[in-house]
Amino acid sequence: MGRGTGRLCVLAAGLILWTTPAWPDETCTLYRIATVDMGIDAGGRMTVPMTVGGQTVNMLVDTGGLDTMLSESVVASLGLHKSRIWNTRITIYGGTPVEFFAEAHDISFGGLKAASMKFLVLPEERARSGIGGLLAPDILRAYDDDFDFANGKFSLFSPDHCKGRVVYWTKNPVVAKIDIAIDASGHIRLPVTIDGREVRLTFDTGAEDTTMSLDQAEDLFGFDEKSPDLKVVDGEGDNAIYQYPFKTLTFGGDDTGRVTVNNPHIYLTPRSVSKLSDAESGLLGMGILRQLHLYISYKEHRIFVSPASAN
Q1: How many CB atoms lie within 10 A of CB 143?
Q2: d(CA 60, CA 65)
Q3: CB count, 10 Å around CB of 76?
């Protein structure tokens, strides 16, 4: 679904109602709080099941989203009352306004339970077929998030553990450890190296593909629209979307561990199409992310990355 903008303090107090114990960090033990099976939708994005009011809802995991949402159709099927959001402006990717929230009851996710919880209401025109809502950073950032694509599992871990002691899934020493920036909305930016040039991208599981600003790519890699290697894949003229035969996208470096994705598919888009701000370089989307095992420690401001198949 991608990123959103807005001031969200109006709902924040009602969104995290799941309680978890404060485990003693001196044990250095990881505590898995919840785990669910993940699915992949038609666009290659990750979904997980959440039970709301006795109904199973297929939620898109959206690290680039705002607050957790339910679609209008799910809100209607549960018979929930929609309340208008006053004194704040919330928009999601593409400029679509979010104007309502609804309070639901009897929520369960991977063994976690909440008696009630407030959800933003996702406009139906932005809810793709089979997706009943979005699981967003308001909940994700309260835990460590573990994306195990090889085994089709998504888990939440307690953030209370010894620093850096999180790599449980592999004995392979080659795990990239990457420092990340987290903004006020919980959105993650991290450095990657594309064909030897560092770029900071927004980590976005709600994006199908990895995208980058066409203007920035031209500056960094020294090509322009006339380059024979730059191919139009959609649109035309000033709205054309391109691909370029990049060779590698690398996480980490010599001091932090290095994990490389070869021949990464990266779409180069003008800002008029991508709607990226001038401060943003692009989005790191699911086309690349699902080739990896990813563990996000929001508390440490760090992501741990290995190939998905590492064991």
Answers
A1: 23
A2: 10
A3: 14
Which residues, including other chains, have CB under 8 Å from residue 159's CB and lie 6 or more apart?
142, 143, 144, 297, 298, 299
Separation between Cα atoms, residue 233 and residue 273, nearest integer Å: 13
d(CA 196, CA 217): 13
Assigned token pair, 23: 């485990």
**Confidence (pTM):** 0.90
Radius of gyration of the CA atoms of the chain, in A: 20
Q: Tens digits of per-residue pLDDT, 178-237? A: 999 999 989 999 999 999 999 999 999 999 999 999 988 999 999 887 889 999 999 888
Place of tokens 């760090």: 302
Alpha-carbon gap, residue 3 to 20, rounded angstroms: 28
Query: What pLDDT score was predicted for residue 27?
Result: 67
CA 308/CA 311 separation, integer angstroms: 9
Instruction: Measure the N-to-C terminal CA separation of the chain; round to a whole number of Å.
Output: 31
Using alpha carbons, select from 14, 13, 22, 23 the residue that is nearest to residue 107: 14
Structure tokens belonging to residue 145: 């998030």
Amino acid (1-letter code) at residue 108: S
pLDDT value at 93 more than 70: no
Q: Give the 3-state secondary structure percentages of the chain, helix then strand then coil, rounded to 5.
A: 10, 40, 45
Token pair recorded at residue 125: 């025109």
pLDDT in tens, 9-26: 334 333 344 544 455 545
What SS3 class is residue 2? coil
Provide the sign of the torsion angle of the four alpha carbons 119, 107, 34, 154, taken in this order. Answer: negative
Phi first, then psi, for residue 221 (nearest 5°) are: -110, 0
Residues sharing a CB contact under 8 Å with residue 99, sequence separation 6 or more, in sequence order: 84, 85, 90, 121
Residues 6 or more apart in contact with residue 280 via CB below 8 angstroms: 202, 213
